[in-house]
Amino acid sequence: MSAGELDMRSVATSPQPASAGAERMRRHRERRRKGLRCINIQLRETGVDALIRRGLLAANSRNDRNAVFRAFHQFLDHTFQ
Questions:
Q1: What does the alpha-carbon distance between residue 61 and residue 67 come to, in Å, rounded to a whole number?
Q2: What is the dihedral of CA 33, 34, 39, 42, to 10 degrees?
Q3: Residue 54 and residue 75 in contact, taking contact as beta carbons nearer than 8 Å
Q4: Alpha-carbon distance 72 to 1, whole Å?
Q5: Number of H-type helices and E-type strands within the chain
Q6: With 0-12 CB in 10 A as exposed, 13-18 as middle and 19+ as buried, what is 51?
Q7: How many CB atoms neighbour CB 22 within 10 A?
Q8: How far is CA 56 from the centre of its chain?
Q9: Structure confidence at residue 16 (pLDDT)
Q10: Structure pTM?
């Protein structure tokens, strides 16, 4: 076997990166297996204020999208238990 043939075989067996659509579908199926749903919500400023009052969100993190997301998830987890 020549070096060129070896190179071709290694290329053929390397995993191909998934397309964006395939990756979205993979995540969708994984959530479905876990019994989860993905939804978008709009949270009012009064909702953010309520998360702060409940001690789930630090006041200085009110504009941190990830912090608000985590606090809202904590609220939902506590509410639905």
A1: 6
A2: -170
A3: yes
A4: 60
A5: 4, 0
A6: buried
A7: 11
A8: 20
A9: 77
A10: 0.63
Both structure tokens of 79 = 């509410």
What whole-number distance in Å separates Cα of residue 43 and Cα of residue 76?
13
What tens digit of pLDDT does each residue of 1-17 get?
Answer: 555 555 555 555 667 77
Give φ, ψ of 59 to 5 degrees. -60, -35
Q: Cα–Cα distance between 2 and 6 in angstroms, integer?
A: 7
pLDDT tens, 27-67?
999 999 999 988 889 999 999 999 999 999 999 999 999 99
One-letter amino acid of 42: Q
Tell me which residue of 79, 72, 77 sits closest to 40, measured CA to CA.
72
Q: Where are the beta strands (DSSP E) in 1-79?
A: none
H-type alpha helices, 14-55: 20-33, 45-53
Tell me which amino acid residue 74 is. Q
